[in-house]
Amino acid sequence: MVATISASATTSRQARARRGKPIDRQWSVPYRFLLPYLIVFSIFWFWPLIYSFLLSFQNTRVNPWTIDVAVNWRRLWVDQAFHAALRNTLIVLVLQVPIMLALATAIALALDSPKLAARPLFRFAFFAPIVVSDVAYSVIFRLLFNGQYGAVNQALTAIGLPALDWLHDPTWMMATIIIAVTWRWTGYNAIIILAGLQTIPKDLYEAAAIDGAGAWRRFRHITLPLLKPVIVFALVLSVIGTMQLFTEPWLITDAQSSGVSIEMLGTYLFKQGFRNLNFGYASAIAYTIAAMAAAMAAFNLLLSRRSSS
Amino acid sequence: MKTTIERRPRAGWSLAAALLAGSMLFSGAARAADDVSGDITVWSWNVAAAALQAVVPAFNKEYPNVKVTVQDLGNQPVYDRGLAGCAAGGTDMPDVYSVENGEAEVFWNRFPECFSDLKTMSPDEGALLAKFPAFKLTELTVGDKVYALPWDSGPAVVFYRRDLYEAAGVDPTTIATWDDFIEAGKKVIAKAGGNTKFVSTNGDTSWFRMLANQAGCAYFDEKGESITIGQPGCVQALETIKKINDAGLFMSGNWDETLTAIKANALASAVYGGWYEGSIRGNAPDQSGKWGVFKLPAFEKGGNQTANIGGSALAIPASSKNPKAALAFVNFANGRPDSQITQLKASGLVPTLPEAVNDPFVKEEQPYWGGQKVWEVVLGTLPDIKPSRGTQYFAEADSLVSAAYVNFLKGEGGSAQAVLDEAANQIASATGLPIAAK
């Protein structure tokens, strides 16, 4: 990283030097501005990243810690609890993210419609959940979905449907988490997509309308293709966020206590690190999560580039 | 290939050690209690915190210059924050730390310097420790160091609502086996109707650990050297819980939700350690006279009716700024029969100090419990309780068992034996310990 910065700095310097401007003392100015940040970054980000990587090759369950290159990485392959956590996380990814992005696109289109009265109010309303602290909303969701006294089950029984055990049955726990995460993040993504919508030139729609294209065809052939980069951006953010999901399973399904819960990669990482006190293994899990998130993000970006070219 | 990594000793620890050494210089003669002064912070959880709070006035009569602050953080947060504090080299730790016996060993094994060895803190400490039963000391001892003073134990009994049982025509004295218990449960909830359930679980492993202990089985053997969860006793325990589950007797709820259900008359019994007495009494004072207790049903008629769940100890972090006052408080709360009885009265914490077990209060009739001599029933089970070892791998084993257990109750994973054998394999791959021969 540092190498690329200095490399690009030199090339631009040479370029500017060729243009015959004296810049010798100025090139370091941005770095001087960046210095405080870089110091903090290297102490609290860069060093922990390196240290965590080193930890993943150590056996941290013995005193003192010893180097044992394969102990944690081997365990990832055979650890069924890790596999279950991975499976649960992927289920949320595959179910929740597409649902949320489809909803967000629909909401963005509605918010963009000139026919909608009180647009700013609606915009705020959809964006509001993101303002609430995730701990606070998780606690509220746990109350709403309480099997015996919760408002959700009261409503279900009132319209003659069976009450569900939202917080203890694994299937419904998954549903609860998906509903909660969707509630919180849909509006946020809708605002991002709305910003994308507003960059689409209106004359394209006018031209299409003159050519006799209906609303659906205009959406299909103008809106979607032009919106694609923005949707992919939202998708990448959501994938990374889902891989790190922690608060909702931790608090809503009570993963914090030792009861029934849905283990996600984030909660499993925490438990291995801070409950079983196995920092080496937790580091290996953390690197696995990061690598998978990065791979998925890269894959998404690649896909969008492919199809748009 | 393994090589040891050299790590610099943490400055905090050496400082704490120096402080300790300093305090030891002055521990020659018996000191007047007035010399002990300063502020100490105690971390604990719900009823246990209330019990320690109840001891403070008497403690302050003897030690007027010590200000005790008891913080009720909740059970799991105490554990989580304690581990985080130890991992950070002893920062942000209290002066007195509550730890469950079953979860304790991970601390001493991974962080031998995080807590003080009580024996080195005062010359009289060894004699006090020797008074406690061996099963309480096992998990607190590493080599010749003892890291915490035993506190309470958790002899399990059935707490039950007399009125709900009577309404259904169930006589608790006729409940000899778990099968009887299930039949009784069906009657009681049929009669009570509505949301009322017979017993509660949050899906954690406490039911399994209780019944396994009753059957003489645990995750690990008593030395903590092999995995014993596939043994017949554990299988029997798991099958019994499945029967209770399939009869529809369980309500699902965590600690607070269960207490809410009790308050709302929606739970007819609770099977838990003796310490739950204080929770029921404190949570539903208006139900005074409606509750009673009886011993655990046996697996077969005439079988063992005792088990232990939970039970804790008090430790002193090495980073404590005021170890003298901390030790004075710990010794006062746990090392004196009168304080232990104060805690029993306040929160139902069952003493492990033998002198306290023989206190006349134990024989008294308890008005809240319909005049029953509750403590006689609970403490009467102590001699027959089989020891069970948590080991330093408890948290890891417990989370694996928990997942298997939940799936089994849902009807997945095959027979109880198959599920537990699978759990044993997983614990083996997580801990590197061998599975004991059946």
Describe this structure in words.
The complex is a heterodimer of chains A (309) and B (438). With 309 residues, chain A is mainly α. Chain A contains 13 helices and 2 strands. Chain A has helices spanning 2-18, 29-55, 71-78, 80-112, 119-127, 134-144, 151-158, 170-197, 202-210, 215-243, 247-251, 265-275, 279-308; strands at residues 58-59, 66-67. Chain A has a two-stranded antiparallel ribbon. In chain A, a hairpin with a 6-residue loop joins strand 1 and strand 2. In chain A, helix 3 (71-78) crosses helix 13 (279-308) and helix 8 packs across helix 10 (215-243). Mean pLDDT of chain A is 86; it is low at 1-10. Chain B is α/β, with parallel strands linked by helices and 438 residues long. Chain B is globular. The model of chain B is unreliable at 1-30 (pLDDT under 50). In chain B, the strands form 5 sheets. A 5-stranded mixed β-sheet of chain B has the order 2-1-3-13-6. In chain B, 44% of the residues lie in helices and 13% in strands. Chain B contains 18 helices and 14 strands. In chain B, helix 2 (46-62) links the parallel strand 1 (38-44) and strand 2. Chains A and B meet through strand 1, strand 2, helix 4 and helix 12 of A and helix 3, helix 4, helix 11, helix 17 and helix 18 of B.
Taken from the alpha-carbon principal axes, the silhouette of chain A is globular
Sheet with most strands: strand arrangement of chain A: 1-2
Give a quick account of the main beta sheet of chain B: strands, pairing sense, barrel closure.
Answer: 5 strands, mixed
Helix content of chain A: over 70%
Q: What share of the residues of chain A does DSSP label as strand, in percent? A: under 5%
Please give the count of helices of chain B: 18
Structural class of chain B: alpha/beta
Number of E strands of chain A:
2
* Shape by Cα distribution of chain B: globular
Detail the poorly predicted runs of chain B.
Answer: 1-30
Task: Work out the largest interface and the residue count of each chain.
Answer: A-B, 40 and 44 residues
Terminal residue distance of chain B:
33 Å
Q: What structural class do helix, strand and pairing data of chain A support? A: mainly alpha
